[in-house]
Structures are given as C-alpha cells and as structure tokens.
Amino acid sequence: MAREIPWQGLTPAYTVLVDLGGETVYSKSVGFADLEHRVTADLDTVYQLGSITKSYTAHLVLQLVVQGSLQLQGRVVDYLPDYTGPGRHASLQQLLTHTSGIANYTALSAGQAILSWVPNQREDILQLFADTPLDFEPGSHFLYSNSGYYLLGLVLEAVTGEDYYALLQDRILDPLGLARTYSGRYEDIVDKRARGYLVTPDGFHNAAPTPYLTPFAAGSIQATAADLAHYRRAFFTSPRIADSLRELATRTLVFADGTPQTYALGALTRNEHLGYTVWAHGGSISGFRSHHAYYPELDMTIVVLTNAGNPPVAPAVLSRQISSVLLGEEPVMQEALAIQPAPERLRQFAGNYLMTPFRITADGLFSLLYRDGTLLARLGAADDEQAPTLPLTAVGPREFVAEGGMDLQVRLREKDGVVAGLEITIPAMDRPPFPAIPTGDR
C-alpha cells in the first residue's frame, strides 16, 4: 500500500481489509475520512459503496424468486403495470444481468444534470429513462445499466408492499448481523461516516453529495469495510443463505451466439486470478470508489474502499495486487515502456470498432484516432467530437494504456499483417476484456 498509494499527509482515505475464513488477517487505513475536521480513517469508517449496492438488490430479488413471489422470466410490466416505457417487456433476468437494453439514466444528459445535490423522488428518476428508446433488443447485448436496478428496486416495493430499505433491513442486514450498513440517507446521523472528495490539479475538493433516492437500489448503500466483508463471506458460507439462492446468484448465462456472460444473476462478476475463482463487484459514486472480491476456494474476502472519486489507484486494481501478494506472487506493476510505434503503424490502427455482445457505449462503437503522432481512444464513433477521448501511451508493439485518469487498456489483434480487432480492458470493472472488430470504415 505504501508503494502503490502516493498520498501522504492531509489526503482522502483508503481502507483495506482481508478476511480469511471469517477472521481479519490484515486491515489498514491511510488518510482522512474528513479532511476539514482532520478525522483519520479507520476500520469503523463508513464509506459509500456505490454499485456494490446491486449485489444486495439482487439478493432481495432472488430471495423472492426462490420463494415464488417473483419469476426470473417475469416482465417489468407484470410487476409494474403502470410502467409504459419501451423496456416494459424486459425480464427480471435481463435487468439483473444488464442485458435489458434499457438506457442507463446516469449516462443520459438529463440524468447527469440531477445526479448530485437535487433531492429526487423515485418518479423523478423513472421519468429520466422510461420513454427513452432501447439501446438494443433485450437479451442481445450486455451494457451496464443503473436503470435496470432502479426498476428492480421498484419491483421489490410493488410486490411486497414494503419500502426497499425496510426490506433490506429485515431480510439481509438484521439476519446477518450487519449493524454498520446503512441506506445512505443524508439526513441520518451515521457514526464515522466519511465525506467524499475529488482530486484536481489544484488539490482536493469536496465532492457533491448524492441524495440516496437518486441511486436508490442501484447504488445508495453505505457500510464499513468489516460489514461489507462479513456480508460477502456470509452470502457464500452462512447457513442462513439457502443453497438454492446461492446457486441462482452465481448463475451466469449464455448469449444466443454462444458467448458466455460473466455477470451473474447475483450482481457479481465471475473471473479468475492465479488459478482461483473470483466473485467480485466494484462501485463508484460522487466522491467514492469501492471494490470487494471473494475467493471461494480459499474462503478469502478482500475489500478496498476510498473516499475519492478519482483515486490514484483504482480499488479493483489494488485488490488484485493485494491478492497476488497473499497468494505468493509479487505483482508486476505495469509501467509505460520507451516504445513509440512508427506513425504508419498507428495510422493502421485508427478507425471504428464494433463491440459485441459486450458494450461500454450505447451503440457499441469504440474508435481509435491518429493525431499528431499520437493514438487516441474515443468512447464512441470516430466522428463524434462529444464522446470522451483519451490519449494512449504505448506499452508494447500493439498494447496501449490510457492517460488522463481513466483505467483503460487497449490491445490490438492482427492477422496476416491486417488489423483483425482489439480487446478493451477496464480493470476497475473486474471482468474479462471486451472484444471489438473493425467496422470497415477505416
């Protein structure tokens, strides 16, 4: 941690916890939970978990599936009859696995305008995406969508007649003894709750707060590292969790073309590291980043939390480096090598690429541009000047990493001297590379 985290003195915090078989074998906090009041972070600090909330929401949904109150193939309209949006025929299974095609409200311009500060109600968020056209036919592609999990929260409330947070308390937090896990309501007094920060060229700034009903069932939960570790291990080992529920939560599906899906029904990604299975999920919300991973063969849980929205090391990356050390393999830190491919090589790589079936943009397009001797990555079509664009640094003849704070790696594939496609890796998403093929308009 000392080597990888460059912060010193008055900085935001990281908290790391490693649980082995139900015992904390390592825990460490650096930095401040509250910079202005000089409150140092420790194992009792409460962080916003962001999208790790989805695992709790999926847990509640799958409980009701096991009990027969919900059906995985049941449609949104079956449980929310007043919902008339184009995604009304998407199934709960598709919402759980981000294959519904429903537009992600946090990526919409209208959504961006009210994600922070504005105290929204459920209907305010629903109106953001309810009538937006689908990004694709439900079930045909994967595209991360907070909207799907927002709808799942509404389905839970409609079917049970209870508030989502009351369900969370009664069905998960109380039975598993999670006393330091909270709804995320700003109005509540939460002991040792961290404040969120942004890292800027001018130093650290307070991040805008996110009212809890804005992320709701997709990202509002807060917890300590110890509570999160306890929850994740309990889900896999506690006798309070039915085997049928555990089986459902770890079930991954297959697309029509045979491509395996790696995002399980329980809002966990299935991956491997050094020969071991890893079930993991991360989170990001204004002023906070988070990650947790469970290694079932080792009964090992790793939690990394930080109260910075753009920390120097992504929690998912730090988690994997820590696991490498614990498993006896010193991690090799990737550093930019003194490699500069010739301009004609870079021009050969430039063009539009289509991602399928996994997407990181609504239209599935990702592009590489050649400008002034530099290769740039664009999250969208090459001619879309509004799409996020990042300069790339070569770390190999066909391998590049993004500059500018986003954790993104690009590896080109060639066949017989012709570009055949590329793979995009976003370590913070903790999933295998996204493949993409040239569109032909190069």
What descriptors fit this protein?
globular; 2 domains; 23 strands; alpha+beta; Beta-lactamase; 442 residues; Lipocalin; 6-stranded antiparallel sheet; 11 helices
Describe this entry's structure for a reader.
23% of the residues lie in helices and 26% in strands. The chain is an alpha+beta fold. Strands 15-17-18-19-20-21-22-23 form an 8-stranded antiparallel barrel. A hairpin with a 2-residue loop joins strand 12 and strand 13. Helix 1 crosses helix 7. The longest helix is centred in the N-terminal third of the chain and has 15 residues.
Could you provide a short overview of the structure?
With 442 residues, the protein is α+β, with helices and mostly antiparallel strands.
Describe the secondary structure blueprint for this structure.
Blueprint (H helix, E strand, L loop, with lengths): L13 E7 L2 E8 L1 E3 L4 E2 L6 E2 L4 H15 L8 H4 L12 H5 L12 H4 L9 H8 L12 E2 L2 H15 L3 H13 L4 E2 L14 E4 L2 E4 L15 E2 L1 H13 L5 H7 L19 E5 L2 E10 L2 E8 L4 E7 L8 H12 L16 H7 L1 E5 L2 E2 L5 E7 L2 E5 L10 E8 L2 E4 L6 E7 L2 E8 L8 E5 L4
Parallel strand pairs: 6-16
Antiparallel strand pairs: 1-2, 1-14, 3-4, 5-10, 7-10, 8-9, 11-12, 12-13, 13-14, 15-17, 15-23, 17-18, 18-19, 19-20, 20-21, 21-22, 22-23
